[in-house]
Design goal:
Blueprint lengths: L1 H5 L10 H8 L4 H24 L12 H12 L10 H11 L3 H21 L3 H17 L6 H13 L1 H4 L5 H8 E2 L2 E2 L7 H10 L1
Antiparallel strand pairs: 1-2
Helix pairs in contact: 3-6, 3-8, 4-6, 6-7, 7-8
């Protein structure tokens, strides 16, 4: 009886057929490619505007002023009966973002550009979509609605469909070479000859 209680049993819950089709079937790759390109373009243009100075106050001569204004607006909306910014997020902005607008401005600008490029070329699609969704979530927490809800939903879909979303892209070559956590790719697999040599040496 004690052996039964102390012996763990691994169980795997299979995905429903619809989920497998939507998020793991190669036939859905063209659909997710369209979503990926759309979301990637939105991020690239947003970051590019900040990078080139079209959206002033981010990485130009007045670097950080755009970020400072964004934070000030969010904090203004964190008080009152119908505050759109929750107290915990206002605290985070006040103590961790407001004192350092310059570094945050650079991080957000280059983050948006990198997310956009990663999604457009389809390289590490799941990772790029995750960080894009993280940016969307932070903008929403700061009270900025705009396209963020729609982009967050699409980014969540891309994260779930990471195996096929970049299939028509660089992930088709990168993932087999590099692998994923727990499953190393061709570059990191030891050949049988190397394994045999290592074993005999021991």
């Amino acid at each position: 009886m004690s052996a039964i209680l102390t012996t763990p049993r691994e169980t795997t819950i299979p995905d429903p057929p619809l989920a497998r089709f939507l998020f793991s079937d190669a036939r859905m790759a063209p659909v997710w490619t369209v979503v990926r390109l759309y979301v990637g373009w939105q991020w690239l243009t947003a970051g590019w505007g900040k990078l080139t100075g079209a959206e002033a106050g981010w990485v130009d001569a007045k670097a950080g002023t755009g970020m400072a204004g964004f934070v000030a607006g969010a904090l203004k909306n964190s008080t009152g009966a119908h505050a759109s910014v929750q107290p915990y997020y206002a605290w985070f902005l006040q103590h961790f973002v407001q004192p350092y607008p310059g570094p945050w401005a650079y991080a957000i600008t280059f983050g948006e550009v990198l997310v956009g490029l990663g999604l457009i070329v389809g390289l590490f699609t799941g990772v790029a979509a995750f960080f894009g969704g993280l940016l969307n979530a932070n903008y929403l927490l700061a009270g900025a609605v705009s396209t963020n809800p729609a982009l967050f939903i699409l980014a969540t879909g891309l994260v779930l469909a990471w195996k096929v979303a970049g299939l028509i892209g660089l992930d088709r070559f990168a993932l087999p070479l590099l692998g994923v956590p727990g499953a190393p790719g061709k570059l990191f697999r030891r050949s049988p000859t190397t394994a045999a040599v290592t074993t005999s040496a021991v």
